[in-house]
Amino acid sequence: MVALNAPYHTLPGHRHPPGATVEDAGVNFSVFSRHASGAELLLYAGAESAEPFQVIRLDPEVNHTFFSWHVLVVDLPPGTHYTWRMDGPFDPQGNGWRFDAEVELVDPWARAVNVCGWDRWRRQVEGVRPHDSPRGVVLAEEYDWEGDTPLRRPWEETIIYELHVGGFTRHASAGVAHPGTFLGLIEKIPYLRALGITHVELMPVMAFDEQDVPPAVWQAGLRNYWGYSSYGFFSPHPGYCVDPEAGCHRREFRDLVKALHRAGIGVILDVVFNHTSEGGAGGPTLTFKGFGNETFYCLDVLDRRIYLDFTGCGNTVNANHPLVARYIIDALEYWVREMHVDGFRFDLASAMARDADGQPLANPPVLWGIELSDTLATSRIIAEAWDAAGLYQVGSFPGYRWMEWNGRYRDVIRRFVRGDPGLVAEVATRLAGSSDLYQANLRHPLNSVNFVTCHDGFTLWDLVSYGRKHNLANAEDNRDGSDDGLSWNCGIEGETEDPEVLALRRRQAKNLLALLLLSQGVPMLLAGDEVLRTQGGNNNAWCQDNAENWFDWSLVERNASMLGFVRGLIALRQRHPSLRRRRFLNGRARSDAGLPDIRWHGLEPDQPPWDDPQARVLAFTLAPLRKTEPVLHVAINMEPCARRFTLPQLPGIAWFRALDTASASPTDLIEPDLQPPHPASVLLVRGRSLVVLEGRGE
């Protein structure tokens, strides 16, 4: 609670910058609302205060400039909580206006928000009650970054690790002081560093509504766990803070970023600018609907009560409106400038390529504005290059610098490893960086973010343990989630104690991860896959905030051999620059060794089975980029039985076995000094496995 000296005097204030800004004279408040006819600022002593200690009515002749409402509250202390009320016309059908002077609104620019009094479902049933909305917090704390800046690691070194801040440390086995928080994650940084990843990709950490779920899901006691329901795009999520009522949001998030940077790990935020938690016509008014519904959302041109929904979440942000585009870019630049994050992954980014009527734009202003921003120039920008209404832009997302989640990579690698025949030509293209998607429009292998699993779908262990989804726990009658996960259960559905099935599942998991780390492009791992975390076959665990969905840290010991395999894979990739090329492979001799950059093979050298509809084998030889780097030879056999591969003869090169997914630990992945020689000209690769040889000078 702040110390008060109300009533506070006011001055006209100014429109820029938006939000609540601490100045020498006090705090300046400013918000955008084009068609509002009046505005009130409500000031609270704390997050749980039952009543505001002062309500300031703004004068349209004094506190209104262009489309902004503003006031400076003299000597107001930081820590004050606040909301807005906007008056204006209610005409949802004709103009899309939804002003309601009874509804308190959270500032879209609030640097911290609290939700102590927010009850979404009571609001839905009983209507608006006094002072029942989320509140912004005035922040002014100084912060010592101790010289920290966003990291500038070369893009080709990137290995992304997607994790959920809450779920990563909420399990009792995590053993942290503050489970489920930014500070709790700090305690697990040594684990991340030992794993070898270069960046964490944090699932949504901007303030989101945990209560935004369908009625049946809410009645089942579930909530919005993943966080793809944002409303406060400048505020860290209060649920991940130790003391949000005191406005600690920014400090605790900064502590996390600084600690990760000290460990050499970058921070990528998964951001949700395609929709908000306000939903469609039946959803609550929290913020944007009350300030400028017709500006912030895409509405039907004939009946503006109807929200265009290209996201599957009830609304679509009108991202290419000039003011909304500026808002989005300002938010991103804030997180880079003030929070030192290193990049962003944009959820359903193709929805941001649409105009106000929902039509795809050839050159969407907001996407080009992000690409060309000076502040964001060195930030990773990653698109989930599709939306929920069929716009699929993998390989054609607007811009040049944008990296993309490569959904085509995921799908073909899953099919190939489960044993689908006739895919080797496309598999080779994906392993080589997806030139068919990126080369023609002047992009590079680094534009492709390769993955076989992510938060959305099966975990790695479930991918090899279930042939169908098991989502009944989500309280939607198993209708949610993908019906075709391109998975294979290895002969038995779900849990089993059959040793042969379990061994095959581990081998398949190794195959998927090995192909991922051996591919050109940027690899992304899902947190927990390295220790075979399961969700019990649930391929849409978005509402499961419970032990079944959290990272179980006892798996680190129980599946230590798998963890060691993944660490070894990452180390293998790191010591082979040839796996991290900035340019596409072309088969020509460009290496120091005088070898073609890549040679493709089948069972015999230089005879890849491109046109064989039954082929499930592929091999390739990768030339080094540096004199100190070994030659790599990879032989892949996704047939159920063993096959013999004839090795290419390279004068002066001796082969050593580095990796064999059919072997048990510790011989599945071997450090260079311990690798056994392979003097034979033929390599036996067991069924459903792959072998990697390193070739060094004799």
UniProtKB/TrEMBL annotation:
Protein origin, superkingdom: Bacteria
GO molecular function: amylo-alpha-1,6-glucosidase activity; isoamylase activity
Keyword Transit peptide tagged: yes
Annotated Glycosyl hydrolase family 13 catalytic domain residues: 162-573
InterPro entries recorded: GH, GH13_cat_dom, GlgX_Isoamylase_N_E_set, Glyco_hydro_13_N, Glyco_hydro_b, Glycogen_debranch_GlgX, Ig-like_fold, Ig_E-set
BP term (GO), one: glycogen catabolic process
Keyword line: Glycosidase, Hydrolase, Transit peptide
UniProt entry tagged with the keyword Transit peptide: yes
Similarity field: Belongs to the glycosyl hydrolase 13 family.
UniProt protein name: Glycogen-debranching protein
Annotated source species: Marichromatium purpuratum 984
